Amino acid sequence: MSVSKQELRAILTRALSALPAHADELRDLDAALGDGDLGITVQSGSIAIVKALAALNDDASLTDVLFAAGKAFSTANPSTFAALVGGGLLAAGKAMNGKDTVSRDEALGIGRAVAARIIERGKSQVGDKTVLDALVPSLDTLEASQGSASEVLDAMIATAQAQVTATASKQSQKGRAAWVQERSIGHADPGATAYVRFLQALREAVAS
Q1: Helix residue ranges, H only, the chain
Q2: Measured between alpha carbons, how far is 103 from 83 in angstroms, rounded to an integer?
Q3: Scanning 34, 63, 89, 180, which has its CA 20 to 30 A from the CA of 28?
């Protein structure tokens, strides 16, 4: 299954419009490990992307969509998470140059580009108790999965959620969460949780 660039904009708009509802949950998770700003980062970033997508021309390219999303998310709130995710979306935009539709291969390319930029700029890797712990394994699931978009997203969500649960037993290695050292054990990673909430919202948006 593939979607056009116009359909992708509509799906992203529906998904991101639902994400601010999780602001309090993400704030509380982040407050246990850091400064508690993840909720507002996701909330303001999601709202900013929706506005940026609405401002694009009807014939905006896939690269335009990803560039607009990356710029909007990274500038909506001055946080490390915003900068990393926004930078990842900008990298994905470059990787999608010349593409007009999104199928599994393009979706995988977008995800891999985002992950690679986060690894590069964040100097982090899977196992450091970051968003990468859920993002990268879910992309592996995407690469290996067959079926409809909804079925593939269900599989990705299951993988990502299992990895979020696993982060609770780890000690944070990056960002403010690393400052609390052993006290980070017992808490799921907020960034990885935010990614699962995005996948869940995306699943609902695809089905609607």
Answers
A1: 5-18, 23-31, 38-54, 62-76, 80-95, 104-122, 132-144, 149-167, 190-207
A2: 27
A3: 89
If one compares 28 and 175, the residue with the highest pLDDT of the two is: 28
Using left for φ > 0, alpha for ψ between -120 and 50, and beta otherwise, residue 123 falls in left
- Residue 4 forms beta bridges with which residues? 101
| Token pair for 21 | 């509802």
The candidate with the shortest Cα–Cα distance to 190, out of 114, 79, 87, is 79
Give the three-state DSSP class for 189. Answer: coil
**pLDDT, average across residues 148-165:** 95
pLDDT digits over 63-92, tens only? 999 999 999 999 998 899 999 999 999 999
Q: How many CA atoms lie within 13 A of 111 on its CB side?
A: 23
CATH homologous superfamily of 3-207 equals DhaL domain (1.25.40.340)
Q: Mind listing the pLDDT tens digit for each residue in 99-124? A: 989 999 999 999 999 999 999 998 98
Backbone angles phi, psi at 156, to 5 degrees: -65, -40
Containing 102, the helix (H) or strand (E) segment is strand 101-102
Ramachandran region, residue 57 (left: φ > 0; alpha: ψ -120 to 50; beta: rest): beta
pTM as predicted: 0.91
